[in-house]
Write a structure and sequence with these properties.
By secondary structure, the protein is an alpha+beta fold. It has 16 helices and 22 strands. A 5-stranded parallel beta sheet has the order 6-2-1-10-18. Strands 13-12-16-15-14 form a 5-stranded antiparallel beta sheet. The chain starts with a strand and ends in an 8-residue tail after the last helix.
Length: 563
């Protein structure tokens, strides 16, 4: 009798839970045991707080070609076009699966799925649940996880490092070391497959839309183990976070608000985006964020204005109930008042380099979601493509894992000898604040070579102190965060220094701009159905679309509203 396949998933967002539930659907509890380790409840994740939705080609007047082209243009051609094609054409079927699991996406009066339009998209194609899409998807996936006897979700786990068999290029991931407060120490856990689905690193910056858990854990662990990273120079800043003073976690005003008619205004109430980009207020995020940044530098103001009055108060409350409640709690009347907004760190484009099945450069190690760099996003992420990528790559990774078999049993969990947990390290807490300040000042929306070099010197100088203190206080939680965030910061800075051209979210003063990144949106060329158009027009790659007509017909079949 063969051994059960042992799998550890680090992270409980959409990517991690999709992988776990899909793998269990392939194999069943008799063939696989899955443990999901998460350091915070599922509600404390970027997946849960995602407002916008899932970008997918569902409407009959939209095409895969248009979605692919929008993705590649926003990504400045840095994307892997094959991965983009795979994710775009497999997305609709996964949305249908979520609906089958009980996801309640918004529908129009005729019962068809309601599609919002967001920045960089040439058509409305964002499936959503009000302004709480992530919350709805997480609800459905968590319900599946908790009802499956083959999946164990363990909260309160702070994973520290990967456990390896072998060294250098021959190393294989065989487990993880984590702080387990239930067992009172640091525990080594082993598995045949390790999956990193830890989210992003927005907490590197003073103001971010990300939750407190976004400290770059997975990328840092993978880098220390020797896995290859990619595109780390690219960090997306969302243009419209509500300006509520010095709050560390910024409240996001969804791009769908601009898609519904809101406009960005300067302090003098003139249009901010007029004349900057052909798509105006719905230009790609790096274009809008940089325009706002430059306006704030020019005027010295703390924010620009988002004018939602074209939407109206009643419609705003109906479309965006969560945003409406939050704004009103702060004294704003959305749909009536102008809203003060400014950019905030939002999404890590780079990460652990993977293929379209989530495989990293290290055997035994997968990476999914925001901590991975599959090649989907290029130099900037198209709005609402992140949940799409998380679903598709996780589904494909689960299908690939299902083909594996366990050659031998894994070792049992063990206490790491001699290690202890220390809760507080004031030195590390002080360095964390310095790190956030430095990253915001030197490695933000607009960078300079001098600033990047100052940042590089700082992260290099603190690394030695971190390593020295780690031998004495391996379980100090602030030190754990600082240790991971220093690694990720160093990778972002190094990538930004080495990146030869400005493109997408990376903009360094005094550096040549990638020409393809600056051109206006052109009419979509006429091409045969099933052909992907690369923005550099280097040729075409045929992509078959089996079942496409059936897919959109099924998705647009009216549902009983009580279902």
């Amino acid at each position: 009798m063969s051994e059960r396949l042992q799998v550890i998933v680090v992270g409980s967002g959409v990517a991690g839970m999709t992988y776990a539930t899909q793998l269990m659907a392939h194999l069943g509890a008799d063939a696989v045991r899955i443990r999901i380790l998460c350091k915070a409840p599922v509600q404390v994740s970027s997946s849960f707080s995602a407002q916008g939705g899932i970008a997918a080609v569902i409407r009959t007047d939209d095409t895969f070609e248009q979605h692919v082209r929008d993705t590649l243009l926003t990504g400045a051609g840095r994307n892997d076009p094959e991965v983009v094609g795979v994710v775009v054409r497999e997305g609709p079927a996964l949305i249908r699966s979520l609906i089958g699991y009980g996801a309640r996406f918004d529908r129009d009066e005729d019962g068809t799925l309601s599609m919002a339009r967001e920045g960089g998209h040439s058509a409305p194609r964002v499936v959503h649940h009000q302004d709480r899409t992530g919350e709805e998807i997480v609800r459905v996936l968590q319900d599946r996880v908790l009802r499956d006897p083959g999946i164990e979700m363990v909260e309160g786990q702070r994973v520290l490092d990967l456990l390896l068999d072998g060294e250098g290029p021959d190393a294989r991931a065989i487990g993880v070391r984590s702080i387990d407060p239930r067992l009172g120490g640091i525990i080594d856990r082993y598995a045949h497959v390790i999956v990193l689905a830890t989210g992003g690193a927005g907490r590197l910056y003073a103001t971010t839309t990300n939750p407190i858990s976004a400290t770059g854990d997975g990328v840092a662990m993978a880098a220390r183990a020797g896995a290859v990273l990619r595109d780390m120079a690219f960090v997306q800043f969302h243009p419209t976070a509500l300006d509520a003073g010095a709050e560390e976690q910024a409240f996001l005003i969804s791009e769908a608000v601009r898609g519904a008619g809101a406009r960005l205004l300067k302090q003098d109430r003139s249009s901010l985006m007029e004349g900057i980009h052909a798509m105006g207020d719905l230009a790609p995020r790096h274009v809008v964020a940089r325009a706002i940044h430059q306006e704030l530098v020019r005027t010295g103001a703390a924010h620009v204005w988002l004018d939602p009055t074209p939407i109206g108060a009643a419609r705003f409350a109906a479309l965006f109930p969560g945003i409406s409640v939050h704004c009103r709690a702060l004294g704003h009347r959305p749909g009536i008042d102008l809203l003060p907004v400014r950019p905030a760190a939002h999404f890590m484009i780079g990460g652990v380099r993977t293929d379209a099945q989530g495989n990293s450069s290290m055997p035994g190690l997968l990476a999914l979601g925001e901590c991975a760099s599959s090649g989907m996003h290029g130099a900037d992420r198209l709005a609402s493509n992140s949940l799409l990528e998380a679903l598709v790559i996780a589904d494909r990774a689960a299908a690939a894992t299902a083909q594996l078999c366990a050659a031998e049993a894994c070792p049992e969990d063990i206490h790491a000898p001699g290690d202890r947990c220390v809760e507080v390290d004031p030195w590390a807490e002080e360095r964390l604040e310095e790190l956030r300040t430095m990253m915001t000042r030197e490695v933000g929306i607009v960078r300079t070579m001098e600033g990047l070099q100052r940042a590089q010197q700082w992260v290099g100088s603190v690394a030695e102190s971190i390593n020295e203190r780690w031998t004495r206080y391996p379980g100090s939680l602030p030190l754990v965060d600082l240790r991971d965030m220093q690694v990720v910061a160093a990778a972002i800075i190094d990538g930004a220094i080495k990146e030869p051209q400005n493109m997408g979210t990376h903009y360094r003063e005094g550096t040549e701009e990638l020409k393809a990144n600056m051109r206006t949106v052109e009419p979509i060329p006429t091409v045969p159905v099933g052909t992907l158009v690369h923005p550099r027009m280097m040729g075409v790659s045929p992509v078959s679309q089996p079942g496409y007509d059936l897919a959109w017909q099924a998705l647009n079949t009216p549902f009983n509203r009580d279902e």
